[in-house]
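User: I'm putting together notes for a lab meeting next week and I want to include a structural view of one of the chains we've been expressing. I don't have a solved structure, so I'd like a prediction I can at least talk through. The sequence is below, exactly as it appears in our construct file.
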Amino acid sequence: MRSHLVTAAFAFAAAACSTVVPTPVPATPTATQTVSATVSATPALCQAEDLDATAWWQGATGSVAGAIDLTGVGGRACLVDGPPTLVRLWSGDVALDVVVYRPVDLVGPEGSPTAGPVVLRPGGRASAFLIWSDWCAVMLPQITEVEITLSGGATLRAHSPPPTPGIIGQPGLDGPPRCDQPGARSVLTVWAFAALQG
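Assistant: Thanks for the context. Below is the predicted structure for the 198-residue chain, given as structure tokens.
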């Protein structure tokens, strides 16, 4: 009787040892999955519906200096890269005759930080510094809008920032700069966009 029990015990132990429990192997992403994840992590270039644009300047020893400011108003993050590819100053329905320079490697005059792509999230802000000089035409226009086209093709009309109650002399789309070089073309320089903090 004991020998039968011992034999049965050895048989049960052997059966238990022969049962192999599979070890889970973590899934390895394929090349296609890895590339898709990398691409989706980079925001697309901003479009007009992603942004609100304002522009302003004020006197700066004969020239005027200011900025074009962008605010993210869409439901996604998007990318602003470099300066605007096109800038027009409008006085009503008249586009002013202005030469536009667009330095692409800096966010301001010489000595300023190097430019780079800006990821603009909803509520985030970016700004392009500008200087406008030498308006020698007889007409002294009142600027109503600044039209800009971004590197992704989005075109926006920038307006004056809304006034802050209780503050006098706020910068906006004021008049043109003075004429320091009669006969020279008027020049507007707009640098690359940079992120604004706060």
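A couple of points you could mention at the meeting. The chain has one domain: 48-163+172-196. Residues 1-21, 31-39 have pLDDT under 50 and may be disordered.

User: Perfect, that's what I needed.
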